[in-house]
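Please go through the sequence and fold tokens given here and tell me how the chain folds. Record follows.
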Amino acid sequence: MSYSYTSREAVCNSQDASSASVSLNGHSSCSASGGIESNITIITCPSQSDAESPAAMKVKGVPVTREEELIKNSVITPEDVLGLQNITTTFCSVKISQKSGEDMPNVLNHANLLLPDYLCGPENNVHNIDFTRFKIRDMETGTVLFEITKPPVPESARNKRDLDPSTGRFVRYQFTPAFLRLRQIGATVEFTVGDMPINNFRMIERHYFHGQLLKSFDFEFGFCIPSSKNTCEHIYELPPLSDDIMQQMILHPYETQSDSFYFVDNQLVMHNKADYSYNGGA
């Protein structure tokens, strides 16, 4: 299941939570009852960016890696994803079969379909990290660009086994062109953790447009105590983009994409994806 977020004001304002949505594993939150609340201050992370040359994809001292090789590994490290040269495009093959009585073209009978996949599955989230609230603000003006909270799971559905474990791993954002000229934004996240303490919780987020790395961010969340609800704000120093690149990003909606990788003790436990439009809904 995927989610989309649309903004309609000069820069962007949030819609009602029932219609707007964000990556519920990486960019959102809901409060945990009976848990311990803590606040974490995250230092500013300048972007590592250079969209002029493919060589800019390479991180100094980190060997180049290939997605098709990483997907075979039992453990994926931060250095592994920093070595990737493009947005992940891993697909899984799903076989479908015609059921008796269904009117389905023969061409689809026993066909193999390709669906988006990730470098790790929901089962890797052994610490039960759940991002439940997300807010973005312009650091220069203090304007809240949008804010949204993950809706609670209905009581009737909490014990159902057929709930989609991949819900919220992909998000589609829609902004106005003015967003591209922001220089510094603050992204506040709230998240809950399970009954195990978390050390060395880290996120690496990489943004691409047409095969070029636009920006790469690297944040550490700090220590999280068991059964806690945590709040932190990541300060993004956005790189300046040329007028030509901004125009191309506006003209090609959803071709700007990002991977968000989450690590605990240097092991990949969550992987979310997003794409972006900057044409204001046109």
In short: The longest strand covers residues 212-224.
